[in-house]
Amino acid sequence: MTPQPSRDLDTFDNPKPGRDFTVRINVPEFTCLCPKTGQPDFARFLIEYVPNQQCVELKSLKLYFWSYRDEGAFHEAVTNQILDDLASACSPNFMRVTGEFYVRGGIDTTVIAEHRNPQWPVPARVELP
Description:
By secondary structure, the protein is of the alpha+beta class. It contains 2 helices and 6 strands. The strands form 2 sheets. It has a 4-stranded antiparallel β-sheet, with helices on one face. It has a two-stranded antiparallel ribbon with strand order 1-4.
């Protein structure tokens, strides 16, 4: 059976829930449509998150991003919607979603949206020599 686009995001148990670690996911082939002109918009998304109890399953994430292919969406709205959906699915301690929309009409756009768990004690930054 051929997979179909889906907004369902699957998760799995964090394999190391007592440790803060960062997951970075690169999605270089995002597409949606401009809601004004219907022309295609192309973007790269970078997802960075510190899991809490759940991690995002990658195949479901791929089908999730595919679901935007024929949908009209402003850059700001789609980036924030992706963050909201991912944060709702896995309740991370921290998540940052960066949408880098490629040049169209001489303009490129980058939208960065963040989610923070208010009960997560943010670790101090470690500077290595």
